[in-house]
């Protein structure tokens, strides 16, 4: 068993640390976060971005803005101690730590459980509250007062207003902030240019360039209208966060240290069609061996591997290109038929089905065919929520987010039941064929030994 007790815990420096939250979704916190990350980067600071909750799309946007991999912090998918450990480990070499919250600050899977307010309290970092002021004026004062006093464990360091129409509008908002007993850090004016691309475009080169340009525009507004120095001063505190020692990862570490899992060859699909990946998952896989990234969309060969990981993404946007990768699909079939281990999530699972219909009335593109089911975007509806499973002696938690469905779900039975946060069984399947394990859920295994699935 290995004990994670980083030597930086013996030295506790001061550095700016904050979580950007909001009263509700749609308040502008993502835009402000992108602008702040890029503005700090342009000042020459190393900024570590985090994303509260299970969202893997926003995490990629933050990565682009900061030029540093964003890490998810989720108190349902991981234990509190693990969240603290991940926060400390990734923030160790950063000058500033910035986390973007999800939904409203206190919105969790049950009341405030799993919320970003819980994360801020757990990490003992202050919150900068972003308030949408497009249809608001002085009446924001009691709202701000409520957020300031609702939970003593959550400290609101200051407020940023978004969608502000004029300097006089901001003057009114600033008075409301003062009367609520909170620091006003500035505002972002209403701008038609500040629009995040559709979340269903994939992370193509064009979208990456668009996000980079958006971060630059947002950074310019942050520097002009936000008192960044004041924000950093108000949010400077001791690092690392309070920490429960020792932190032990009992699952997975012991097996890797025996040597029989060292230097495993792990092939990971990563391209515009497959890129929904939790950074901590990659780090855990890297502890088992060498990672090789490949592209099902643009590549032609499957790398030699002891495990092939096909993460989620948007294969429906690239169905025609994937359909043409006959050589790679045949290599995947040969690999799996010979007992090779494959772990596929959501979009990765869709690539393993017999066919993928990308739109209503559209062509059913032939896919790999390892799973005897067909996937379709016809009659698309959102399937969303946390999921839990126990299989092969391992317990995993994750998140489901997709619009596609299996055309005839009873064709291939699930090998284990999946449950939501309330413990109610859901219809989401987990498929297995030989050593191929696949399903719709994006799993988090930062504290688990994924290899046990094949023991």
TrEMBL record:
CDD domains: CobB_N (cd05388), GATase1_CobB (cd03130). Transmembrane segments: none annotated. Its cofactor is Mg(2+). It is an enzyme of class 6 (ligase). Pathway: Cofactor biosynthesis; adenosylcobalamin biosynthesis; cob(II)yrinate a,c-diamide from sirohydrochlorin (anaerobic route): step 10/10. Keywords: ATP-binding, Cobalamin biosynthesis, Glutamine amidotransferase, Ligase, Magnesium, Nucleotide-binding. Residues 265-447 form the CobB/CobQ-like glutamine amidotransferase domain. GO terms for molecular function: ATP binding; cobyrinic acid a,c-diamide synthase activity. The active site is at residue 346. It comes from the Bacteria. Its EC number is 6.3.5.11. Signal peptide: none annotated. The keyword ATP-binding applies. GO terms for biological process: cobalamin biosynthetic process. It catalyses: cob(II)yrinate + 2 L-glutamine + 2 ATP + 2 H2O = cob(II)yrinate a,c diamide + 2 L-glutamate + 2 ADP + 2 phosphate + 2 H(+). The a and c carboxylates of cobyrinate are activated for nucleophilic attack via formation of a phosphorylated intermediate by ATP. CbiA catalyzes first the amidation of the c-carboxylate, and then that of the a-carboxylate. Belongs to the CobB/CbiA family. Comprises of two domains. The C-terminal domain contains the binding site for glutamine and catalyzes the hydrolysis of this substrate to glutamate and ammonia. The N-terminal domain is anticipated to bind ATP and cobyrinate and catalyzes the ultimate synthesis of the diamide product. The ammonia produced via the glutaminase domain is probably translocated to the adjacent domain via a molecular tunnel, where it reacts with an activated intermediate. Catalyzes the ATP-dependent amidation of the two carboxylate groups at positions a and c of cobyrinate, using either L-glutamine or ammonia as the nitrogen source. NCBIfam families: cobB (TIGR00379), PRK01077.1 (NF002204). HAMAP family: CobB_CbiA. This is Cobyrinate a,c-diamide synthase. The gene is cobB.
């Amino acid at each position: 068993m290995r004990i994670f007790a980083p030597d930086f815990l013996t030295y506790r420096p001061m550095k700016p640390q904050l979580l950007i939250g909001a009263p509700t979704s749609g308040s502008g916190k993502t835009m402000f976060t992108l602008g702040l990350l890029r503005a700090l980067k342009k000042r020459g600071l190393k900024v570590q971005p985090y994303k509260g909750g299970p969202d893997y799309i926003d995490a990629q946007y933050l990565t682009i803005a900061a030029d540093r991999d964003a890490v998810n912090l989720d108190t349902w998918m991981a234990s509190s101690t693990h969240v603290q450990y991940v926060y400390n480990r990734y923030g160790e070499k950063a000058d500033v730590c910035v986390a973007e919250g999800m939904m409203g600050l206190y919105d969790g899977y049950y009341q405030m459980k799993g919320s970003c307010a819980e994360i801020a309290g757990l990490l003992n970092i202050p919150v900068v509250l972003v308030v949408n002021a497009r249809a608001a004026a002085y009446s924001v004062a009691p709202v701000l007062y409520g957020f300031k006093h609702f939970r003593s464990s959550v400290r609101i360091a200051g407020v940023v207003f978004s969608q502000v129409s004029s300097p006089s509008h901001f003057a009114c908002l600033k008075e409301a902030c003062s009367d609520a007993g909170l620091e006003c850090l500035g505002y972002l004016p209403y701008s038609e240019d500040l629009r995040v691309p559709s979340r269903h475009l994939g992370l193509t080169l064009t979208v990456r360039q668009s996000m980079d340009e958006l971060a630059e525009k947002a950074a310019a507004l942050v520097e002009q209208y936000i008192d960044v120095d004041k924000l950093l001063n108000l949010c400077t505190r001791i690092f690392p966060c309070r920490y429960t020692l020792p932190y032990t990862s009992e699952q997975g570490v012991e097996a890797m240290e025996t040597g029989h899992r060292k230097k495993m060859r792990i092939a990971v699909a990563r391209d515009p069609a497959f890129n929904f990946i939790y950074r901590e998952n990659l780090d855990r896989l890297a502890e088992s061996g060498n990672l090789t990234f490949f592209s099902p969309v643009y590549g032609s060969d499957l790398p030699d591997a002891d495990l092939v990981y096909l993460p989620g993404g948007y294969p429906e946007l690239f169905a025609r290109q994937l359909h043409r990768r006959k050589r790679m699909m045949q290599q995947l079939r040969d690999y799996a038929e010979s007992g090779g281990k494959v772990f596929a999530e959501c979009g990765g699972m869709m690539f393993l089905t017999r066919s993928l219909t990308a739109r209503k009335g559209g062509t059913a593109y032939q896919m790999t065919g390892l799973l005897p089911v067909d996937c379709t975007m016809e009659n698309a509806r959102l399937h969303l929520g946390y999921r839990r499973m126990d299989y092969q002696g391992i317990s995993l938690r994750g998140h489901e987010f997709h619009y596609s469905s299996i055309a005839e779900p009873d064709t291939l039975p699930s090998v284990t039941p999946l449950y939501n946060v309330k413990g109610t069984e859901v219809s989401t399947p987990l498929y297995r064929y030989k050593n191929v394990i696949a399903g719709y859920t994006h799993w988090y295994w930062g504290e688990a030994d994924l290899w046990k699935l094949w023991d």
